[in-house]
């Protein structure tokens, strides 16, 4: 009986595998035309990715050196096609044939549900509801809050020992969190400072994304029993409970406030829009609130911290940015949204920061209809997971001279003209607008280096960040310290 059972299992597995190959014969035919590493039955190339998640992008680089800028690999039965050619990337991301989030985004669902970031059938309608909160008038009305929180950041930094280095991210993330809470979340300053488990969330977020990225890149963690035995399920449950309780508190406070008064259209935050729309369940409101909260405050904090660290280590660029601010804004401030757009040197440092520390190391889309690239010579079959390695593209020496160096001058107009415009895609093909403004910080503080920008160690956990912190020194600028008292 035992041998009969084993034989039946093996036979069923073989027949199932053959049936799968028959159903996906078109995919297999087109995949066979592409270069890529040899794949094992069932496992595909999964064994090639048994390493620390931070090494994933390095492995992609190795494959590109071997197989070119378009290649395929298999993770089990999932076909992934990596494309790094800038022209192909624009064509693919502009097509409605490749407009669904890829399977990697499923790993976000336990934390934030289906929606704007993770995809699913409802993300378009949810995004449409919140879009007005990002229009020009709303952003202009948010400027006083951004300026006030940036000044508060400067006050905090002024109290530090100017001779000692510190990680600016720890202070910046509090600034961006308060800014987002009082704008997109619609909270009062008092409510924002008293949210349940908010401080815990600030320091748990990066570890949470590390867990998600680890599961994305380690195929054995997809097996529930292994995920549970290694303690990962316990970690996930902790993060999910933390999210649920914090977001429930935010939504509760906004519901209570809306019973008293409804903000004007140009001042309304996203939580209010979701509540007043009547289109979302309570759980969906909380999930989308978390999505927009973390993708705003945490991403903005990483970008601002990178800008500040680079300016500290590039004194010539710090001087350029400061002098330009004095010319455009004047000595009194505050910085308006229109003035911010005129700060060209700051914009170059900002773009170089986005190039160096990609907000999304890679993005993945599902091909829903066959599409060709490279003048029809390559066809991506239906069901393929398209992978765009943004981090690798932003380090490609064909487009970026000495790509591992920090060089804001890459974005001088004369240098931009020489480069393929599609080689820089920090937000996919979306606009390069970032809510929040820590630039007024430069008004009050003289930044100084701590260490070096050579060989910065990177941490990859969905986004790319500085593994050892955004370390700087800072001292008050002469004559400006009294303005902060």
From TrEMBL:
InterPro entries: Cyt_P450, Cyt_P450_E_grp-I, Cyt_P450_sf, Cytochrome_P450_Monoox
Pfam families linked to this entry: p450 (PF00067)
Cofactor: heme
Coiled coil: none
Source taxon at top rank: Eukaryota
Entry keywords, A to Z: Heme, Iron, Metal-binding, Monooxygenase, Oxidoreductase
Species per Swiss-Prot/TrEMBL record: Spodoptera littoralis
A molecular function GO annotation: heme binding
Identification of the protein by name: Cytochrome
Binding site for heme: 434
Family: Belongs to the cytochrome P450 family.
């Amino acid at each position: 009986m035992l041998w009969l059972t084993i034989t039946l299992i093996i036979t069923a597995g073989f027949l199932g595998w053959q049936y799968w190959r028959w159903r996906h014969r078109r995919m297999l035919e087109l995949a066979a035309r592409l270069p890529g590493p040899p794949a094992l039955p069932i496992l595909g190339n999964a064994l090639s990715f048994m390493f620390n998640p931070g090494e994933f992008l390095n492995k992609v680089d190795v494959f590109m050196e071997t197989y070119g800028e378009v290649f395929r690999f298999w993770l089990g039965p999932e076909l992934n096609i990596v494309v790094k050619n800038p022209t192909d990337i624009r064509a693919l991301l502009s097509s409605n044939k490749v407009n669904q989030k890829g399977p990697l985004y499923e790993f976000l669902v336990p934390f934030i549900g289906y929606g704007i970031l993770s995809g699913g059938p409802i993300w378009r309608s949810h995004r449409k509801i919140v879009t007005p909160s990002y229009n020009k008038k709303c952003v202009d009305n948010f400027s006083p809050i951004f300026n006030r929180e940036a000044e508060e950041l400067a006050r905090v930094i002024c109290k530090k020992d100017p001779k000692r280095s510190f990680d600016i991210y720890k202070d910046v993330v509090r600034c961006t969190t308060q800014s987002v809470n009082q704008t997109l979340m619609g909270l009062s300053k008092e409510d924002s400072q008293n949210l349940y488990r908010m401080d815990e969330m600030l320091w748990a977020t990066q570890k949470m994304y590390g867990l998600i990225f680890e599961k994305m890149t380690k195929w054995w963690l997809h097996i529930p029993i292994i995920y549970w035995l290694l303690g990962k399920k316990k970690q996930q449950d902790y993060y999910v409970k933390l999210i649920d309780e914090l977001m429930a508190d935010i939504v509760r406070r906004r519901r209570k406030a809306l019973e008293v008064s409804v903000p004007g259209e140009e001042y309304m935050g996203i939580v209010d829009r979701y509540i007043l729309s009547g289109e979302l369940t309570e759980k969906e409101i909380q999930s989308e609130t978390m999505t927009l909260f973390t993708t705003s405050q945490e991403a903005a904090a990483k970008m601002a911290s990178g800008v500040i660290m680079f300016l500290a280590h590039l004194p010539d660029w710090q001087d350029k940015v400061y002098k330009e601010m004095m010319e455009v804004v004047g000595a009194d401030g505050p910085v308006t949204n229109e003035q911010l757009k005129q700060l060209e040197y700051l914009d170059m440092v900002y773009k170089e920061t986005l190039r160096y520390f990609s907000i999304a190391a890679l993005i993945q889309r599902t091909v829903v209809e066959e599409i060709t690239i490279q003048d029809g010579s390559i066809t991506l079959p239906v069901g393929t997971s398209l992978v765009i390695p943004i981090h690798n593209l932003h380090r490609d020496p064909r487009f970026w001279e000495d790509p591992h160096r920090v060089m804001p001058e890459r974005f001088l107009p004369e240098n931009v003209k020489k480069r393929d415009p599609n080689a820089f895609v920090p937000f996919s093909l979306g606009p390069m607008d970032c809510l929040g403004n820590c630039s007024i910080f430069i008004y009050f503080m003289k930044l100084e280096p701590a260490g070096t920008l050579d060989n910065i160690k990177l941490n990859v956990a969905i986004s790319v960040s500085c593994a050892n912190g955004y370390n700087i020194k800072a001292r008050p600028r002469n004559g400006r310290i009294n303005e902060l008292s």
